[in-house]
């Protein structure tokens, strides 16, 4: 079952949301101070909140037709909440934390109330209890003044939300369209993230200097996006629906695949942030702090892509592991290089992985999925 027009409309909200989160992370990198994990954690939490909201909605539309009026109402409520959350992202963990948390909790509670009233779509008392606990954690976290405690409470709320996705998926294990639909939706979200990276790169050039180094940065970003698309869809990404529906345990396979897509999407998201950094300051002084995005983004993508290959074919290509090793070795090599040079090195690694894929595929029949699960 392909995605409905309603689901595609729902995805458009997350184009705006990802852009807002990306701008916040770019601002974090542009502070001029060393970016610590603790400082980036709030932005990561906001990103994960959108991911859990999107994924929980996908779980619903994978087991019930989007043509049902009740499903449409639930999706539109999720869209409204996501828009409010996206609007307040710049201060979503600070001054406007209550608005962000309130919108997230409102989506979860309104969905719970609808299921309770109509007694449909697999509602159970345990579902209501966990959703309520998660919503309370978000609201209480927004009300406390200590941001460290807020981060802890919101992390617990996110964990409950992801657990509900996993548990909810059990109710349609064995449904013939569920795995194909989930694969289709995950691929679409991945493409949205690639599109957001292109948007960030183009906006960075149009808003700044149109000189040769900056234009070169845009060209490099475009090449990197093409390579991220190519490496993902080469075989494992292309046959993902068959790998889920043909698995011995489609439930475990679906949940595992969703997790690996989170890694890849986060990697592409970080890479998009790096495009902004080296397009605006292509030949500026070396910024080792920026290597978190410039090299860390492709590394996170390759790590997720390696796990996806393991889930689909029960093996990992040596080129993926070599790419990860090369990115690690590039950290000291690019430490004192300008941002554009580091970006070029990262793109060269991705090109090497894509070239290895093309070389191995010469004269061979397409490989069929062989999932272990």
Entry keywords:
mainly alpha; I/LWEQ domain; 373 residues; 77% helix; 0% strand
Summarize the structure.
The chain is mainly alpha-helical and 373 residues long. The protein has 2 domains: 1-172, no CATH class; 175-373, Up-down Bundle (I/LWEQ domain), CATH 1.20.1410.
Give an overview of the whole structure.
With 373 residues, this protein is mainly alpha-helical. It has 14 helices and no strands. The protein has helices at 5-29, 37-63, 69-87, 97-118, 125-143, 147-169, 178-206, 212-237, 240-245, 250-280, 291-294, 296-313, 318-333, 339-360. The protein is globular, with a radius of gyration of 21 Å. The model is unreliable at 173-177 (pLDDT under 50). It comes from Micromonospora inositola. This is Low temperature requirement protein LtrA. Keywords: Membrane, Transmembrane, Transmembrane helix. It holds the Pfam family LtrA.
**CATH-derived architecture of the largest domain:** Up-down Bundle
Task: Outline the biggest β-sheet.
Answer: none
Q: Tell me, what is the CATH class of the largest domain?
A: Mainly Alpha
Which class best fits the helix and strand makeup? mainly alpha
How much of the residues is beta strand, in percent?
A: under 5%
Average per-residue pLDDT, rounded, comes to 87
- Please provide the ordered H/E string of secondary-structure elements: HHHHHHHHHHHHHH
Alpha plus pi helix count: 14
Can you tell me the CATH topology of the largest domain?
I/LWEQ domain
| Unreliable sequence segments | 173-177
Backbone CA Rg: 21 Å
General shape:
globular
Distance between the termini: 23 Å
| Fraction of residues in helix | over 70%
| Quantity of strands, as a count | 0
Tally of separate domains: 2
InterPro entries: Low_temperature_requirement_A
Keywords: Membrane, Transmembrane, Transmembrane helix
Protein name: Low temperature requirement protein LtrA
Transmembrane segments: 40-61, 68-91, 127-145, 151-169, 214-234, 255-278, 290-308, 320-335
